[in-house]
Amino acid sequence: MKMSVREAINLTLHEEMARDPRVVIMGEDVASGQGGVYGVTAGLTEKFGVARVIDTPITESAIVGAAGGAALTGLRPVAELMFIDFLGVCLDQLLNQIAKFRYMFGGQARTPLVIRTMIGAGEGTGPQHSQILYPMLAAIPGIKVVAPSNAADAKGLLAEAIRQDDPVVFCEHKALYMDECEVPEGDYVIPFGKARTVVQGTDITLCGLSRMAVLADQAAAELAAEGISAEVIDPRTLSPLDEESILASVSKTGRLVVVDESNPLCSMASEISGMVAEFGFDYLDAPVQRVTAPHTPVPATPCLEKDYVPSVADIVRAAKKALAY
Amino acid sequence: MSIPTEALSDAYRLMKTIREFEERVNAEIMNGQIPGFTHLYTGQEANAVGVCAHLDTDDTIISTHRGHGHCIAKGADVSGMMKELFGSSEGLCKGKGGSMHVADIDKGILGANGIVAGGPPISVGSALAAKIRKNGKVAVSFSGDGSVNQGTCFEAMNMAVVLKVPAVFVIENNYYSEHTNISYAVGCDDLKARTEAFGFPVFVADGADFFAVHEAAGKAIAHARAGNGPAGVFAEQGRYHGHFVGDPQHYRGEGELDDLRENRCCLKNFRARMLESGEVSEDVLDGIDAEVMALIEQATIDAKAAARPTPDQVTEDVYINYGAGA
Predict the structure, then answer these.
(1) CA nearest to B99 within chain A
(2) Which run of H or E residues covers position A77?
(3) Are A67 and B151 an interchain contact pair (Cβ–Cβ within 8 Å)?
(4) Among all residues of chain B, which has the CA nearest to that of A192?
(5) Of the candidates B105, B320, B326, which has its C-beta nearest A193's C-beta?
(6) Mean pLDDT of the residues in chain A
(7) How far apart are CA B174 and CA B40, in angstroms?
(8) Percent of chain B scoring above 70 in pLDDT
(9) Chain B: residue nearest A110 by CA?
(10) Which of A286, B86, B209, B224 is the most buried (most CB within 10 A)?
(11) Chain A interface, mutation test: which of B83, B93, B122, most A Cβ atoms within 10 Å?
(12) What is the set of domains in chain A, with CATH numbers?
């Protein structure tokens, strides 16, 4: 069935809540009104009631911390951190609490929770509502980080996130919410740590994360028109990261462009480049190219924002540079 | 509220166990046997025991960096705790938590916590789970006078009221957040009123008096358990040691520590009360003392002999399952 990312997430929340009474939703404006700014949680209250779809005050530390405490004591909360930027006010609960429970309690703790959060630029939302930030989280042992690029993956990965027993941050790119694709009906679960090969190719690998996988796909189409065969890989989960699939692709193509909307320092692009330099050095025929946002905050005005976010043209240019090496 | 004789003996035993555990830990740290930061609870034992006396195994507590007393009062195995502090893989947390993270999930101990006011939001989540699961349980968070100025504490208190969950906030005022006195760090004159302004009742007790804490905590916990939303307990009592073991405590007033040990000792107070009421005889109390001393001695011997982790254990227990790609 064809549906948007927003609809796929909404459907999955309905399905998982129906499947398991321990699943509860909590966050700001999730229950009342329209189901959040983008309507992602719309209809859940009508179906499951306010006991399981819980509106909270604007109180991110309490939302994230309470999700952790509820997960430790038998629920499977799906908490919403409206924008990933709000990590700034609640990071301790994720970094020092939830991520550490299992290890620092010697394997006693089970913390099955999902934090759904919006990421990304492209909507003119400015420096405090547009960041990517997932590299920060992927660097923290004890949590998993997921970033789907389409509706089908959103469904399968969210179902897996809710059903498995570790804490997961589920990153939803706001500029993808209306993107549509075919979504498998019924029970559909995608295991973590399995990249998706978006397009097969032989000349160069384009590895794109979250929305950048979509742009990489578009870049591959442009390159194909010029007779260049690009393979597009979407890792889908950043922690765990499917290193094997990325290396397998590079072993075939000998060239790699990593496309990441993060700021460049300590980005996923850096991580993947480093990983390939360490384990795939012999495969490489050219230096790895990183296409990222610049080392700046996200500008609000669309005239600047379009230059901030990596573009299809940027990816094509980087691919050609690698091919010309 | 009259307390059965057996419960009185249990309470004394727990307070004495905490006292001797802490004093032994202090000595072993001085001997260089225990690594890391350790914050001792000595002096405040009545708070933990007076509160936990009202809790079942499935009620939860979340503690602080000064957490040994809360964990013992809630039923943590003393030997497992001592092993944890000594860094043994046989410790309650396999040596990976240490003094500041003692936990026993099956006993409702959601962990001591190294971040000041890290615990209250988590405790509200436990209370929320109790409310949703309708199991009649309560969730207690222990905090100190330092934590009451953290935003997480405010957020947890407000959300507990908004969601009307059975959360109990126990604030232990030991007068110093690290080295800074409460008269400086809390900007208002009436902390009880400030806390009650969040919208729940707070019951005050003398933290050197087990019976006072027991009564105040009983009211707060009954309030929460009955579905009336959160409640608070305030107990005042100084700690006998520094913020951490090794703290020179230059911030203390002259004679302050001597006065605490001499005149504000929950064990002495308890004994005096028993002598007066005759509910538990001196002989019985002496017998408990001897049993506790033997327990701590054995726990220490066992901890010293217990296995240390092997190198492969450093990567264990990060995740339940990290997924196919890793």
Answers:
(1) A104
(2) strand A76-83
(3) no
(4) B323
(5) B326
(6) 97
(7) 12
(8) 98
(9) B320
(10) B224
(11) B122
(12) 2-182 (3.40.50.970), 196-324 (3.40.50.920)
Q: Give me the CATH code for the B5-307 domain, please.
A: 3.40.50.970
The runs of H, that is alpha helices, within B31-188 are: 45-52, 68-73, 78-85, 119-133, 151-163, 182-185
**Torsion angles phi and psi, residue B206, rounded to 5:** -80, 115
Query: Which tokens hold the place of A168?
Result: 């997961």
The distance of A38 to chain B (nearest Cα, Å) reads 24
The three-point CA angle B155-B161-B166 to 5° equals 105
Q: Which pLDDT tens digit goes with each residue over B243-283?
A: 999 999 999 999 999 999 999 999 999 999 999 999 999 99
From chain A, the residues in CB contact with B111 under 8 A are 101, 104-105
Distances (CA, A) of B190 to B168, B194, B195, B197: 19, 6, 9, 11
Whether pLDDT at B1 is above 70: no
Q: What is the pLDDT of residues B83-103, one digit of tens each?
A: 999 999 999 999 999 999 999
Average pLDDT of span A122-148: 97
Residues of A in contact with B156 (CB under 8 A): 61-62, 65-66
pTM: 0.97
pLDDT computed for residue A32 by the predictor: 82
CB contact under 8 A, B156 and A65: yes
Q: State how far the Cα of A70 lies from the Cα of B110, in Å rounded to an integer.
A: 11
- Domain residue limits, chain B: 5-307
Quick check: B128 and A54 CB within 8 A?
yes
pLDDT value, residue B326: 40
User: What would the mean pLDDT of A170-187 be, rounded to a whole number?
Assistant: 97
Helix residue spans in chain A (DSSP H): 5-19, 44-48, 60-72, 91-92, 101-104, 134-138, 151-163, 211-225, 243-253, 268-279, 302-308, 312-324
- CA B294 to chain centroid, in Å, comes to 23
Any idea which residues of A carry the catalytic annotation? 129
Element (H, E) at B27: helix B5-30
Mind giving me the DSSP string for A266-284? T-HHHHHHHHHHHHSGGG-
Flag if B128 and A195 touch (Cβ within 8 Å).
Answer: no
Interchain contact, B122 vs A142, CB within 8 Å: no
pLDDT tens profile A214-265:
999 999 999 999 999 999 999 999 999 999 999 999 999 999 999 999 999 9
Q: Does B207 touch chain A (CB under 8 A)?
A: no
Interface predicted TM-score (ipTM) over 0.85: yes
CB contact under 8 A, A70 and B126: yes
B234 bridge partner residues:
B171, B204
